[in-house]
Each structure stands twice: as structure tokens, then as C-alpha cells.
Specification:
By secondary structure, the chain is mostly beta strands. The chain has a single domain, classed as Outer membrane protein transport protein (OMPP1/FadL/TodX) (Porin, Beta Barrel), CATH 2.40.160.60. 14% of the residues lie in helices and 47% in strands. Strand 14 and strand 15 form a beta hairpin.
Length: 396
């Protein structure tokens, strides 16, 4: 009784308040536990899905956008500062100084068979936040469909040949904001994936990305978490169309509707900008790409975590002309003689800034270089061009 005051009336009143306090505490703990369970579910779901997922999914989103980035072997997580940040690290969108910024890129792969297109528009909402919308398309067009070439009677009719496209699309909605802490910015993406294989199959997917950047003096750091809750692609097959490519006399089974999961990936970047002489500057960046889907053929490989380092540098003069170079795709390769060698893929590029217009060019896919340089390993170069247009306040 002394705990509650010393007389009966005081005891009853304080006991009621104590009961209410304990009840409120219990309710608070229950709510927190529910949130905790939900958060743990989101964190553990990607790792639970490791054994159920393909190692490579939505890989067209790993190619990269913008000739500036491709010329530096995709080293952009820390230094990206324009409309392409919606892809590389949405936190970089806060560095946009214009009312509207538009970026576009076109490149071709496999001797022009594959077409890769990218477009983005970004605009500040206020002094601290920016929004952006990006569209990516990677496709092989005009694929001959010969499934109806021979009719049921065995007759060949070339007029029955048609064509279709196998295309992957990504729609990114980005938001970035400056924090109250000096030098720290953060942002995120909501992305919608659409993949289509003619009339045979298509898939819809949904995922989330998040990124931060921090600048301290000449140092810049960045972290980009892709597919943080895993990206889910729901595939749907047109059995009537697929049936045409299957031989009824074999044991092949028709594919069924399924769910494809893209596991999270973490990208870390660090950069330092220095003045070489006068108006000449140099800005190297080192990036580390961490994957969680088992061993990959990268420099640092383990199960389930593998780390792929790549290095890029940008030399600039008076913020007018830029020269870029990078090294990526570092791999250990064993030849037919059982000898282990180290291979890598260099890239290079150039950029010119003309008032509100920036033109960038990159030369990538320069294969066959490394410790076992061999002319027979040479591949086809990829020439990449990209444009960026800033619409300033004073522009009409």
C-alpha cells in the first residue's frame, strides 16, 4: 500500500492510473512487434527466395544508361548528378540546377540485332526535392515466326511467315530529396517492368530501389540498393501460340504461368575530385557491386555473396570537355591448358558541354584484352551516344 500513497483512497486512484499506463505500454509493444515482424518478413523474403530464383533476372537493367557512365565502366553511384541518376542512384537527382532536364540514349548490340533505348525527364519540385520519369527498352525486333510455315497437309507457304519482337521495358518513377544534414541526399525508385515475347508470352513486374549520396569536401560516397524487396515478374503464356512451336510427338510440356524473382543487389561507390593543374581536373571512382544469388564469375566470388569491382575516371577541362576511361568485368578465366588468367573489359569515352546541351560518346565492349590477349577473342565494339538538355529559368 505504501507504493501507492499510504491511504486507501490514494491507493485506488493511483492503481487505476497504473493500470492504464501498463495497458498503454502493452498496446505499444504489440504494435511495435507487428511492425517488427513485417520488417523482418521484408528483409528475410529475398534470402528465403534465393533457392527459388534464377541467378540472372531482368539483366537488361544491368547494362547501364548514358554514355558518360558507360565510358567509365558504369562507375556512377557516387558522382551521378543529372537526369540519369534515376537509374544509377536517385539521390543524385538533387544536383539538377535547371527547371527541366531531358536525357536520351540509343545503342545497338550484337551487330545491330539488339536495340537499347533510354529516355528520361527530371524536374525539381521545390528547393529540396526532385522527381523524374525514365523509360528503358531493350529489344530484338523483326524475329521471323515460321510456326505456320507448314500447314496441316505438309504444304510450305512462305506467305504465312510473320515477325514479332522480344522486348523488355522498364518504367522508373523517381523521387529525391536533400536531407537536413549537410551533404546528405536520398532518393528512391518505383519501377514497373513489362516483358513481351510476341504473342507467346508476357510478364508484368514491380520493384523498389533506394539510394543515398554523401559529399564531404572533395569526397563523394554513394550507396544504391536495387530491388530492395525483390522484384517480382509474373509471366503469362499464350498456350495457343506456344503450342505451335511444340511437337506433339515429343514429351515436351507447355510452360505454365510462373513468378520470376529478382534478388536485391547493393552498389557502393566512392569518388574524389582533384585539381591537376589550373582548370584541369580528375575524378576517379571505385564501385563495388554486391550480389546475393550465389557464386558469380567475378573478382571476389563466394556463396551466396559475390563482389564485382570496377573503376572509372573522368578528366575534365573548365567544365567544357571531358575524357573518360574505365575497367570492369574483371574475371578469372581458365584456358584449355588449365592455366588461370585474368581478363577485364576496358571502356573509354568523351563528352562536350555546349551551354545547355551535353553530348557524350562511349566505346564499350572492347573484348580480348587482359593477360591472355588474343586476337581470336576480339569482339564487336559498341558505339554509344547520349544527349542531355538543360532548360534553365532564363531559357525561352
Amino acid at each position: 500500500m505504501d507504493k501507492y500513497g499510504g491511504n486507501e483512497a490514494t491507493f485506488i486512484i493511483n492503481l487505476r492510473f497504473d493500470y492504464l499506463n501498463r495497458t498503454q505500454l502493452t498496446m505499444t509493444l504489440n504494435i511495435n512487434i507487428k511492425y517488427l515482424r513485417f520488417a523482418l518478413l521484408l528483409l528475410l523474403l529475398p534470402f528465403y527466395s534465393i533457392s527459388q530464383t534464377p541467378k540472372y533476372s531482368n539483366e537488361f537493367l544491368s547494362i547501364g544508361v548514358g554514355a558518360r557512365a558507360l565510358g567509365m565502366s558504369n562507375c556512377q553511384v557516387a558522382i551521378t548528378n543529372d537526369a540519369t541518376s534515376g537509374f544509377w542512384n536517385p539521390a543524385g537527382l538533387t544536383a539538377i540546377q535547371s527547371n527541366v532536364e531531358v536525357a536520351a540514349m540509343h545503342s545497338e548490340y550484337f551487330a545491330g540485332i539488339g536495340k537499347y533505348d533510354y529516355g528520361c525527364i527530371a524536374a525539381p519540385v521545390d528547393k529540396t526535392s526532385v522527381i523524374a520519369f525514365s523509360l528503358i527498352r531493350f529489344a530484338v525486333d523483326d524475329i521471323p515466326d515460321t510456326t505456320l510455315l507448314i500447314d496441316a497437309d505438309g504444304n510450305v507457304n512462305y506467305d504465312r511467315i510473320s515477325s514479332f519482337s522480344a522486348a523488355d521495358y522498364a518504367f522508373l518513377f523517381s523521387y529525391a530529396r536533400k536531407s537536413k544534414y549537410p551533404g546528405l541526399t536520398y532518393g528512391g525508385n518505383v519501377k514497373v517492368i513489362y516483358r513481351n515475347v510476341g504473342s507467346f508470352a508476357n510478364a508484368w513486374g514491380f520493384g523498389l530501389d533506394a539510394g543515398i549520396q554523401y559529399q564531404h569536401g572533395n569526397w563523394k560516397f554513394g550507396v544504391m540498393a536495387k530491388d530492395i524487396t525483390s522484384t517480382f515478374n509474373a509471366w503469362s503464356f499464350n498456350n495457343d501460340a506456344v503450342q505451335r512451336i511444340y511437337n506433339a510427338d515429343t514429351a515436351n510440356a507447355l510452360p505454365s504461368n510462373s513468378l520470376e524473382i529478382t534478388l536485391p543487389k547493393l552498389l557502393f561507390g566512392a569518388s574524389y575530385k582533384t585539381v591537376i593543374y589550373g582548370k584541369f581536373t580528375a575524378m576517379p571512382e571505385l564501385d563495388l557491386d554486391m550480389t546475393f544469388d550465389g557464386q558469380r564469375n567475378v573478382l571476389i566470388t563466394n556463396d551466396p555473396v559475390s563482389i564485382d569491382p570496377h573503376l572509372g575516371v573522368e578528366f575534365g577541362y573548365n567544365n567544357f570537355i571531358f575524357l573518360r576511361a574505365g575497367v570492369g568485368s574483371i574475371q578469372r578465366v581458365k584456358d584449355f591448358n588449365g592455366i588461370n588468367t585474368m581478363n577485364f573489359q576496358p571502356s573509354m569515352g568523351i563528352g562536350i558541354k555546349l551551354k545547355n546541351l551535353t553530348i557524350d560518346y562511349a566505346l564499350t565492349n572492347i573484348n580480348g584484352l587482359g593477360s591472355n590477349n588474343n586476337a581470336s577473342d576480339a569482339g564487336l565494339y559498341s558505339n554509344v551516344f547520349s544527349l542531355k538538355l538543360d532548360i534553365y529559368k532564363h531559357a525561352k
